[in-house]
What does this fold into?
Amino acid sequence: MKLYADSAAVDAVLPLLRDGLVRGVTTNPSILARDGLGAADLPRLYDEFSAAGADEIFLQATGATRAALLADAQRIAAFGHRIVVKVPATQDGFRVAHELLQQDVRVLLTAVYSLAQATFAASLGVDYIAPYFGRLVDSGEDGLSKVANMTQVLSATRTRVLVASVRSPNAAATLALNGVSHITADVPVLLAMMVDPVTEQSAAEFERVAAAALPTA
Ligand code: G3P
It folds into this structure.
């Protein structure tokens, strides 16, 4: 199981990386915009996440044409060896993904919604696909079955399914139960995954008992 922070909120993400709680970070233009950031901030984000211990840093390329998308992807790939370039799973995106793979750049095809797209991505040999679980459910799909099917189809390939748009601890746990081994979620969801009220009660009781058992002077 590998968990990633789906966030560009540096102050929230760096402690998780420094404490070794997540393997890396994923972002996209919408996530950057949420924190008032843009493409010009990507080199700094790479450096900060890298210094804090991220194994993999997923930054997304943009471009209105295939050539522009490829050029931006190559710019991002040059940041360093921890980069996995995210490219949208459009027809241009598939073509750019292939070119990047030829150049030994690691690639994630993002916003994958169908099993057909997942199948095509695996045939190219991309490193990851990212289905958006919450958005699949929003659109009335059986998101769990769809993601489970992608996981099953890709299990015999080198392409991993890294599920995004995971909005609650329960969603993460349900995905894990259905064979998902790579999940990215926003920091509050990750933090909530570590918490259970019964554990909190038990931990408080341990502290009370330990304090009461202290030898008196
Ligand atoms: O990385 C995917 C994420 O940006 C989408 O999440 O919750 O807006 O569907 P959400």
User: Anything to note?
Assistant: Residues 197-212 form the longest helix (16 residues). The pocket of SN-glycerol-3-phosphate is lined by residues 6, 28, 30-31, 132, 134-135, 164-165, 167 (CB under 6 Å). The longest strand covers residues 83-88.
